[in-house]
Design a protein that fits this description.
- The complex is a heterotrimer of chains A (about 290), B (about 220) and C (about 300).
- Chain A has about 290 residues and is α/β, with parallel strands linked by helices.
- Chain A folds into 2 domains: about 35-65 and about 250-290, no CATH class; about 70-245, Rossmann fold.
- In chain A, about 60% of the residues lie in helices and about 10% in strands.
- Chain A has 11 helices and 7 strands.
- Chain A has helices at about 5-25, 40-60, 70-85, 105-120, 135-150, 170-180, 195-205, 220-225, 235-245, 250-275, 280-285, and strands at about 35, 90-95, 125-130, 160-165, 185-190, 210-215, 230-235.
- Chain A has a 6-stranded parallel sheet, with helices on both faces.
- The model of chain A is unreliable at about 1-5 (pLDDT under 50).
- Chain B is mainly alpha-helical and about 220 residues long.
- Chain B has a domain at about 140-220.
- In chain B, about 80% of the residues lie in helices and about 5% in strands.
- Chain B is built from 7 helices and 3 strands, in the order H-E-H-H-E-E-H-H-H-H.
- Chain C has about 300 residues and is an alpha/beta fold.
- Chain C has 13 helices and 6 strands.
- Chain C has a 6-stranded parallel sheet with strand order 3-2-1-4-5-6, with helices on both faces.
- The mean pLDDT of chain C is about 90.
- Classes of the chains: A alpha/beta (about 290), B mainly alpha (about 220), C alpha/beta (about 300).
- At the A-B interface, helix 1, strand 1, helix 2, helix 4 and helix 5 of A face helix 1, strand 1, helix 2, helix 4 and helix 7 of B.
- Strand 1 of chain A pairs antiparallel with strand 1 of chain B.
Chain lengths: ~290, ~220, ~300
């Protein structure tokens, strides 16, 4: 395998730049070591959350069998690619419109890796048009590696992952145009979407493609649910890579997250009961960041 | 070894520094300033990546034009628009004129007003049409759940209709109730779940367990 | 294929044609449909009414041209209302794609043409109002959350100069606004996520009162914040804009003359939306009647 020259260079750059940067950076003389008390409640939550999740990761490493419920949208991924393969048409993958500092985009790239591996194995054409330049660069690497792992690096070219434009609606126009002209058999709309969600999904629906969507943008979910065959809702998107990889360690983190959700739920119910019957709002106020 | 560990170390540092600076202060608040520096880097890297994107755009479209692929005049038009907009934009940024005829700022503003704005508004307003067709298709009483969804949709849409409200005066209250109670409850449920999901995903990245976004596979 | 089946599988282009006609006709011939004012909108109106003359409000243009038809009238209404109440207005823009032009256009639509660097600072519409003293436009700042955080400590670091490049210190109003403490509340006209940031960060961490005017698409999400008290008022989409415009024009007839003179305003937009809503509702009902009749027939046939 070809040696990557970048990591050493980038680590050296990080250390070289960060160290003097840190030494020189000074916002205020008066500030010394201390806790940011305004974020103290968040710190406790952070510690509890990390603690529980890491415990479950450890349990999973130890071989404990963890049950995760079925996610229909993810089970349909292979069905969708299979259909595209049968029809000899392409698979279109839209990784959302946000950059890679958005966690949904990273979650989408993980799903993209899975999809790309399958399309490479079956020799099905794949296209990943991009709006954000950083996402474009990351998606290109992800797909390239997936093709390499599937043993088909020959299938990768510059057109598989391409860059369209930085403008939201120009991007929407371009991708909808592709859907209508080239009629892909499967459309994946996974990541962070805003107003373009319905424009893309309805254009895809009109071409009869099988559509799998996934987003944590609450306002866009209704549009995907009404126009797509499967929709990954909120946390299902973040769980996707763990679910698809079936790695116990990853599943452990999902389990841990569910436990924290249960703890929060208990907190909310307890807070409501105390507020309703005693009139004390301390449990709510403690969580407020003031 | 490098290929595996260094990107993961970078990801860890990039994630851990802002988190630590969110919770603790260091002498001179240096950690927070370092965090801000990291954010600036992101902007710079994005700028460089944009250049990569533009190169890709040229590669693909020049190939389309040279091979006279289907729709090649569109590719030509795309590249022309890109060059014109970029020229005017750069002229604006550097405060020079375009071909000595228009001031850069005037020319760029003209592109904004005459092309960019109406095109954006046109795309956005397509939503009205798509909402209509999606609603027409999706809201069918196929089963009990779909029936409830349909009833809620009808109440909300009629609840903002001035004439329907005259006939059925309870509609605005019903609309408010649906928006404030069941809708808000469901939204919060999804928001809390998604926030925890995002936190757990981020933790997996920090710990180096989640690595498919780096193009790495398990155990690599 | 009989009629019921044909209705159920109607070509979507017929629907598009009807929606298109419904969108154009009310703009050309306004219907002046009535609006019912809802609580979240009344909250904003009451808050503006309760402020003392001279207090400062901040209006942040956090949207681009695409959602202009929904957000523009909100911006107009709040700026006009504030100036009519003798409040002072600070305008900023945080949306990267077009917020900067939206803010300038809406401000100039409300006060009249401006050219402060060349001395044109008096408002045409409000003869006693002057740029830099009664209203000011700080311009656009990149960085969203980071900029918002910094604005609480040091407004002048985020906006060293106004939109026209004049240092803020040269204007009375510019000197006065050093952080969120100097403004009575912030009104964010938002598309997407920026309105949420105002609630999550500025309201939650600094305690500044926040109101949001959002697009109808994102309204369900914002209602959760409104209910949680993280924003004191909410204008939800065109309907919210029309309600607010209605409240303002009822109280201040001189402002009604201004908004009526606009080619497009929230009232006209609301006419369009009402008619389109009615068409969609009608089609949903027709589709379901056809669906039920068809299903009954199939059952009987079995």
């Amino acid at each position: 395998m070809r040696k990557h020259p970048f990591p050493e260079v980038s680590v050296a750059a990080v250390l070289l730049l960060l160290a003097p940067g840190y030494a020189l950076a000074q916002a205020s003389e008066e500030i010394t070591w201390g806790l940011r008390m305004e974020n103290f409640a968040a710190l406790i939550l952070f510690v509890v959350f990390s603690g529980v999740v890491m415990t479950f990761i450890r349990l999973a490493r130890g071989g404990r069998d963890l049950y995760i419920r079925r996610i229909a949208g993810l089970n349909a991924v292979e069905e969708a690619i299979g259909r595209a393969t049968e029809l000899g048409k392409k698979v279109l993958y839209v990784p959302g419109i946000m950059s890679i500092d958005e966690v949904q985009t990273l979650a989408s790239l993980a799903v993209l890796k899975h999809v790309a591996k399958h399309t490479a194995q079956y020799g099905t054409p794949l296209e990943v048009p991009n709006k954000d330049p950083l996402t474009y660069a990351a998606a290109r690497e992800t797909v390239k590696e997936a093709y390499l792992e599937a043993g088909r690096p020959d299938l990768f070219n510059e057109e598989v992952v391409n860059y369209v434009t930085y403008d939201q609606f120009a991007y929407t126009a371009a991708v909808s145009g592709k859907m209508v002209r080239e009629k892909p058999a499967a459309n994946f709309l996974v990541g962070s979407f805003y107003a373009e969600s319905l424009l893309l999904a309805e254009a895809g629906q009109s071409t009869g493609a099988i559509q799998i969507a996934g987003t944590a943008e609450v306002a866009q979910l209704p549009f995907f649910v009404t126009t797509c065959d499967y929709t990954l809702i909120g946390e299902e998107l973040y769980a996707a890579s763990a679910y698809l990889s079936r790695e116990p360690v990853m599943l452990g983190s999902i389990k841990g997250q569910d436990i924290v959700k249960f703890i929060l739920l208990c907190w909310i119910v307890l807070g409501i009961l105390i507020f309703t019957f005693i009139g004390n709002t301390a449990m709510r106020d403690w969580l407020l960041p003031h | 070894m490098y290929k595996k560990q260094f990107p993961l170390l970078l990801a860890f540092l990039g994630g851990a520094i802002p988190i630590i600076s969110f919770f603790i202060t260091t002498p001179g608040d240096r950690l927070k300033v370092t965090t801000d520096t990291l954010q600036d880097w992101m902007l710079i890297i994005a700028g460089a990546a944009l250049l990569l994107g533009v190169v890709n755009l040229f590669q693909i479209n020049l190939r389309k034009i040279s091979t006279r692929a289907k729709g090649w005049p569109n590719a030509l038009w795309l590249l022309l628009s890109l060059v014109i907009a970029a020229t005017f934009g750069l002229a604006d940024a550097f405060g020079t004129s375009v071909f000595g005829i228009w001031g850069g700022d005037v020319a760029f503003q003209w592109i904004q007003d005459a092309a960019f704005k109406p095109l954006q508004a046109t795309m956005f307003s397509l939503l009205a049409f798509y909402v209509a067709s999606a609603a027409f298709r999706a809201f069918r009483v196929r089963n009990v759940e779909a029936g409830i969804l349909l009833a809620a949709a009808l109440i909300i849409m009629l609840g903002v209709n001035p004439y329907a409200v005259k006939v059925l005066p309870f509609l605005p209250d019903a609309t408010n109730w649906i928006m404030n109670i069941p809708n808000a409850a469901a939204q919060r449920g999804i928001i809390i779940g998604a926030a925890l999901g995002a936190a757990s995903f981020s933790l997996r990245i920090l710990l180096g367990i989640e690595r498919s976004y780096l193009g790495l596979q398990k155990g690599e | 294929m009989d009629m019921m089946e044909r209705l159920m599988n109607l070509d979507r282009r017929w629907l598009y044609l009807l929606v298109g006609l419904a969108a154009v006709i009310p703009i050309l011939a306004p219907l002046n449909l009535p609006v019912n004012v809802s609580r979240p909108v009344q909250d904003l109106f009451d808050r503006v009414e309760s402020l003392e003359p001279g207090e400062i409000i901040m209006v942040s243009f956090d949207y681009g041209p695409s959602t202009g038809p929904e957000n523009d009238p909100m911006g107009d209404a709040i700026i006009l209302h504030a100036l009519a109440r003798d409040l002072r207005v600070v305008v900023i823009a945080l949306y990267p794609l077009g917020g900067v032009t939206e803010a300038r256009e809406e401000l100039e639509r409300c006060v009249g043409d401006l050219d402060p660097p060349n001395g044109q600072i008096a408002s045409e519409r409000f003869p006693d109002k002057v740029y830099g003293r009664d209203f000011i436009y700080f311009g656009y700042k990149d960085g969203g959350l980071a900029a918002m955080r910094l604005m609480s400590d040091n407004m002048h670091e985020v906006f060293p100069a106004d939109f026209y490049g004049t240092p803020l210190d040269e204007y009375e109003l510019g000197r006065e606004v050093q952080g969120y403490d100097n403004v009575a509340f912030v009104m964010s006209l938002a598309t997407g996520i920026i309105g949420e940031w105002w609630a999550n960060l500025v309201n939650a961490q600094f305690g500044t009162p926040v109101a949001v005017g959002c697009t109808a698409v994102s309204a369900p999400k914002y209602f959760a914040y409104y209910r949680a008290g993280q924003m004191f008022a909410l204008l939800a989409g065109l309907k919210g804009a029309a309600e607010y415009e209605f409240l303002v024009s009822q109280k201040y007839p001189q402002l009604a003359q201004i908004t009526d003179s606009f080619i497009y305003n929230a009232g006209k937009g609301w006419d369009v939306q009402s008619v389109v809503y009615s068409i969609i509702t009608l089609f949903i009902i027709i589709g379901n009647v056809a669906f039920i009749v068809e299903r009954r027939r199939q059952k009987r046939g079995m």
